[in-house]
Amino acid sequence: MTQQHQDERSRIRAATDRLLAGQPTHSNGSLTVAALAIEADVHRMALMKRHADLKEEFYARVRAETHQTPEVERRLRKEVVRLKEALAASRAAEAAARQRAEQIALAAAVLLLQSPATTAPARDGNVIAFRQQPQ
Fold first, then answer.
1. In which domain of life is the source organism classified (predicted)?
2. Which residues neighbour 16 within 8 Å (Cβ) at sequence distance 6 or greater?
3. What is the β-pairing status of strands 127-128 and 122-123?
4. For residues 37 and 133, which has the higher predicted lDDT (pLDDT)?
5. pLDDT tens for each residue of 38-60
6. Which of 8, 40, 88, 131 is most buried (most C-beta within 10 Å)?
7. Phi, psi (5° rounding) for residue 115?
């Protein structure tokens, strides 16, 4: 590892300690990766990519030391619940649409069977003659 890499890691660990102690110096003090990156003066994507192990360590310490779920995880859990509800509603709408389509198809079949025009002979392939109106 390079010296810069080691320096970033030590700054991230120190920032983690400050955030968990409730003594932020550069960030708003929220227990998020974005705040951790600001507090450590490290680019957020560097923290997410090069130091993913420290990010996971941060979240583990947030869970263990504060006995709370990280904000990111809470948001994702809410999103999962919302998406599951949307999926259930979509499936219900699809089932209702299928049932309605079946009803329409059955009604169309009944109407075709009751119509005397269907018994008239076809002319010129697919052309059906109009019924004669009684006079």
1. Bacteria
2. 36, 40, 54, 57, 58, 61
3. antiparallel
4. 37
5. 999 999 998 889 999 999 999 88
6. 40
7. -75, 125
